[in-house]
Amino acid sequence: MSPINGLTNTTKNLIRVFMEEAWKPERMGIKPLLRALSGQHDAIPPVWMMRQAGRYLPEYRAVREKAGGFLDLCFNPELAAEVTLQPVKRFGFDAAILFSDILIVPLALGRKVEFLVGEGPKLEPLADAAAVAGLHDTIDGKVLAPIYETVSRVKSALDDRTTLIGFCGAPWTVATYMVAGEATPDQAPARLFAYRDPAAFAVLGAVFSSNGSYASGRDYVSGLVPAVAVGAAVVAVGAVTALALPRRKRIQSSVDAADVPVLLGEPAEPVYS
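User: That's the sequence. What structure does it adopt?
Assistant: Structure tokens below.
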């Protein structure tokens, strides 16, 4: 017996209503995720998952083995586009999420970044004002060129109903990695740096503005929805205002100027006071 024949009449009617609603002529031509972001309500809401491309997919593991290291995969447009599209092809998600990393920008600012097996990302720590002063004034476009090519490849492969979500790291999140040189559970090195030498920490504005120019770049935003990840969970409330929010607003302003919607990924943990 066909699975559909085993459904109750009520369930069959609900499925029919949902499908009719989703495929109404007036809803065609606008991607479901973009409709939702514009305030329209569909019977079937758009669905996607954070980190939807990853190790749980056997096809991802096969490509990762072929690519070598994590950054090798990020900077290989053909393979990065392939793993970006894998979950969409398998599950029919309403959005593809660009396969990349928030630490691409520090790399484009001249810092050494590597991903060690079993350890995660490692960077050259920004231990003092002299190290901060050594940052490039602007991002190196040549470093980011493969990422833009991946965007182009994915866009050309998606159908008219699927949105491409890109992302960049929130200013505070990127700063915590750059100061400590690695992930830290309480982000203490960055907080201590900011309190001890606020003038030097302010120079990290190069990172903040570079995130904005990266996320709003013409080759990046055309046809996608940049999602700005936010990491300020362990900063005191007053410090969030002083250290994180102004720079985050600067990124959003850059993307708003490109007329592209923004998704803010807030942490689940509370901000400690």
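The radius of gyration is 21 Å.
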